[in-house]
Amino acid sequence: MKKTSIFLIAFLVAAISALAVINRFHSRYIHKKAERLAVQDIDRYNKRLIDTAISLLKSGYIVLRTGKGADSYLLAQMNQTDKTYSHCGIVMIEHGYPFVYHSIGGEDNPDERLRRDSAGFFFSPLHNDGLAVVRYDYDDDKVNTLRQVVGQYYKERPKFDMKFDLKTDDKLYCAEFVYKAVNKATHDPAYIRPTTVLGCTFVGIDNLFVNAHAHMIWKTKFK
Questions:
Q1: Which of 20, 43, 70, 153 is buried deepest, with most CB atoms within 10 A?
Q2: Within 10 A of 116 (CB to CB), how many other CB atoms are there?
Q3: From CA 154, how far away is CA 28, in angstroms rounded?
């Protein structure tokens, strides 16, 4: 009788221990599954945002994004009125799809030359927290001129301007590229106006959309 009781106690202890282990693994499984589903939901949500942005794009539109890195944060600090965005580019529809021309340096672009990327790639949430789409009030003729101007810049493929010097044209930072291309296409040197602070003149990304000619038609943040 005593041996039977000892056996039952040992069995119960082993069973309880086994159930604890099973519950622990089951809990981990449920947690990991929930994490995977959450990631999938976020991916689907972000993809819908990108698809919406792409559906709005037309040639001549300006696109903005908010980068996640320290360099993006520093670039956003150049903005004097709205520090949300750290990068920008010009949209051109080619073969029915929007592409973005933009000047970028750093690890994302080792050769530091003017890039042409698909809108889907440009909007990727991998290194970005949000995006915006801006429309200017120029007409179709100006858009066609802008296409030629952007095409010429892309042939020359200037490098990214680490000195942020508006006086030079052989190197351009992102907002400088948009500023010079748009002003050249509109034949209006004041269409986009630069900012002057303490004797230093520069173009912040907010200069591109906080002006009389610009209308922000859509903006969002990624999850």
A1: 153
A2: 16
A3: 52
Contact 89, 122 (CB under 8 A): yes
Q: How far is CA 123 from CA 1, 59, 86, 128, 222, in A?
A: 74, 16, 13, 8, 10
Q: Quickly list H helices, the chain.
A: 2-56, 70-76, 119-122, 140-156, 174-186, 205-209
pTM of the model: 0.82
Q: How wide is the angle at C-alpha 90 spanned by C-alphas 58 and 84, nearest 5°? A: 105
Name residue 109's amino acid.
N
Say whether 17 sits in a helix, a strand or coil.
helix
Integer Cα distance of 114 and 104 in angstroms: 7
- pLDDT (tens digit per residue) in 39-87: 566 899 999 999 999 999 999 999 999 999 888 998 899 999 999 999 9
The dihedral through the CA atoms of 45, 126, 62, 216 has a sign that is: positive
Return the structure tokens found at 174. 């992102």
Task: Name residue 126's amino acid.
Answer: L
Rounded-to-integer distance, Cα 176 and Cα 88, Å:
10
Give me the sign of the Cα torsion angle 148, 151, 155, 158.
Answer: positive
